[in-house]
Write a structure and sequence with these properties.
Elements lengths: L6 E5 L4 H9 L5 E2 L14 H19 L7 E13 L2 E3 L5 H11 L3 E12 L4 E13 L4 H10 L19 E5 L2 H5 L3 H10 L9 E3 L6 E3 L2
Parallel strand pairs: 1-2, 1-3
Antiparallel strand pairs: 3-4, 3-5, 5-6, 6-7, 8-9
Subcellular location: Cytoplasm
Pfam family, one: Maf
Keywords: Cytoplasm, Hydrolase, Nucleotide metabolism
Amino acid sequence: MSNSLPLRLVLASQSPARRKLLQAAGIEPDVLVSGVDESQVIAERAEDLCLELARLKAQAVSDRLRSTADERTLVLGCDSVLAFDGEILGKPDDAADATRRWQRMRGRSGVLHTGHCLIDMVHESRAEAVASTVVHFADVTDAEIAAYVATGEPLAVAGAFTIDGLGGAFLNGIEGDPGTVVGLSLPLLRGLLRDLELSITDLWTKVAPGAQEIEPLG
């Protein structure tokens, strides 16, 4: 391990997709929702908006935690927005909004930006960056849009689509890291950890064969 203290990663997000992505990569985070009001943050550029929101989420959770002498706590905040046709799109307001978006997006492309902010509470330092991925939307039918919106899935995610759920069938492809579209880029997280003189392997956990318990490595 890059530090003598055991590491704890706190994910400042209620997104089950982000948590699942970390778990699939061998990282078991604690989860603490930030409670940040995203509607109060305004920016002209999608990259600036998602990074500011990620920063606010990480800081809000960090402020609620207390550093201990026997543990090195890292807080990770993330936020995603879609840049499309000159607009910045977060979560749809309602089903009608999601429907209108898909009618505009089908057969076209947008850029999904995900901001990341990683705070090291012990050393009072942070590393942050934005990952961007081009998304190519399929030319879906009105019936497909209606059925997708009716599931409720697009109402809960930035840009009104997923890549790891029902919406994955409505994407023709991407250019970049798929994790960015899920809401968390693992290669970018690796880089942020390196900026804090840590390795992503320091956060790995293991599952004993045939068992469900997760034990820390080492």
